[in-house]
Amino acid sequence: MSSLQDWLSRLEQLHPTEIELGLERVSSVATTLGVQKPAPTVITVAGTNGKGSCVATLEALLRSAGRSVGAYSSPHLLRFNERIRINGDEVSDGDLVRAFEVVEAARGETSLTYFEFSTLAALWLYQCAGVEFALLEVGLGGRLDAVNLVDADLAIITSVAIDHEDWLGSDREVIGREKAGILRPGAPFVCAESTPTQSVLSAAEKQASSSYFIGRDFTLSESEELYQFGELQLTVPSISLPRSSIAAAITALALLGALPEKGVERVLADITLPGRCQQVQWGGRNLILDVGHNPAAAEHLARWLYRNPVAGETHALVAVMADKDLVGLFAPLAAQVNHWHPAILPGNTRAADAETLITGLTKAGVEVTKVDARCPSVADGLRQLLPTLGSQDRLLVFGSFFTVAEVLQQMRDVGNGELRG
Questions:
Q1: Is the Cβ–Cβ distance between 41 and 68 less than 8 Å?
Q2: Are 277 and 307 in contact (CB under 8 A)?
Q3: What fold, for 278-414?
Q4: How distant is the alpha carbon of residue 381 from its chain centre?
Q5: CA–CA separation, 157 vs 176, rounded Å?
Q6: What distance in Å separates the CA atoms of residue 256 and residue 97, rounded to the nearest whole number?
Q7: Which CATH class is domain 4-270?
Q8: Domain spans in the chain, listed from the N-terminal domain onward
Q9: Which residue of 37, 126, 282, 373 could cross-link 70, Cys pair, CB 3.0 to 4.6 Å?
């Protein structure tokens, strides 16, 4: 196989299931590759929401401090390369192909999922690059996730909420226990969850060498800009990322002695992450793109919309996976959205249909008069809605990574020209 796309297509067919939690298979291949310690310092980040924001903050601060860093996150929006970065740059197609070839040779007869294969490739690339820090974002849960084959030198949990119930259940205590599986004896632990479960508290007491909890050991409120951790005080500007995740990243690097000596506030002000309350202008119209797909993410998005009002109206173009808590997703946003436009994702068998979305909106307390005509696709919704928006209006597009990816792909393909169907 010569191209990255050939490899990605193969990875999708390599294992009988998309997800199979467990470390035995992936750890055995990691041992063959010798990538159990891909960098001198490994920071593993778990959490229902805010993982990507935390990794992005860690990455930006470390680079500002002149440290070499590999960052691993998922899923991607447009390009697989987004998942694996070295010193802020996406790994090239050629390097990914080479990494996949090495993993393929090492695995022998061992079957690996798409995520496991990708994780091993990332670890190998970081080891080859000789990075000082490896930032590993958990894909699902924590204890049995592929990145947990690596012993973290510092563990972070950004939040504990309900999502992926088919895999993790609907009990926060159980979910917290799974996420706390990334903790290691003798390694510090930072928790950005303001209401940690007893399972997280117990794991911290038993496992971590030292634990630091938001609200107890370090503070950064949603409404104030002052971050404080012991004698360390910083002004954290208001940006779109979850402030608790930012605070956790600062605390982690302070513990490791890796914060930049100066300019932290400037670095924080410049951090952005695609699909996280992302503000874009397209054809003279204001868009907000957000991948949020669970109630906790919707609450963060609702707070952001409330604090960033517009003179006009807010329209929402929404497409969501059918297995999500639609009522919990829509209810926090009901007061912030004037017009709802349910859309489907053609070709995605997991996506909710328009009737299911409308039922969810109704049960969430959205007035029927606020639910406009359904859209046969996100692209069609964009084509229908953008010309009708006033200069003071905004269009919120949210509900899944697939939803936001469709908008970004349209923007890439079309630019400011006519939207295609």
A1: no
A2: no
A3: Protein-Tyrosine Phosphatase; Chain A (3.90.190)
A4: 25
A5: 9
A6: 34
A7: alpha beta
A8: 4-270, 278-414
A9: 126
Q: Which of 213, 209, 212, 149 is nearest to 181 (CA)?
A: 149
Q: What's the residue count for the chain?
A: 421
Range in 129-133, 147-151, 234-238 the model is least confident about: 234-238
Q: Tokens 């269009």 identify what position? A: 395
Query: Quick one: average pLDDT of 394-421?
Result: 83
Q: DSSP 3-state assignment of 157?
A: strand
Tell me the average pLDDT of the chain: 93
Q: How far apart are CA 178 and CA 1, in angstroms?
A: 37
Place of tokens 């952005």: 272
Rounded distance, CA 25 to CA 273, Å? 32
Residue 273 C-alpha from the chain's centroid: 9
Burial class (CB in 10 A: 0-12, 13-18, 19+), 217: middle
Cis status of the peptide bond prior to 342, with omega within 30 of 0: no
Residues with Cβ within 8 Å of 266's Cβ and at least 6 positions away in sequence, in order, are none
Continuous segment of H or E residues that includes residue 69: strand 69-72
Q: Which residues of 226-253 are buried (b: 16+ CB within 10 A; e: fewer)?
A: ebebeeeebebeebbbbbbbbbbbbbbb
Q: 174, 223, 216: which is closest to 193 by C-alpha?
A: 216
Position 421 pLDDT exceeds 50: no
Strands 69-72 vs 285-290: parallel, antiparallel or unpaired: unpaired
Cβ atoms < 10 Å from Cβ of 54: 31
d(CA 417, CA 414): 5
User: In whole angstroms, what is the distance from residue 233 CA to residue 228 CA?
Assistant: 5
Comparing CA positions, the residue from 217, 186, 180 lying closest to residue 202 is 180
Rounded to two decimals, the pTM is 0.94
List pLDDT tens digits, range 293-320.
Answer: 999 999 999 999 999 999 999 999 999 9
Residue 197, both tokens: 């479960």
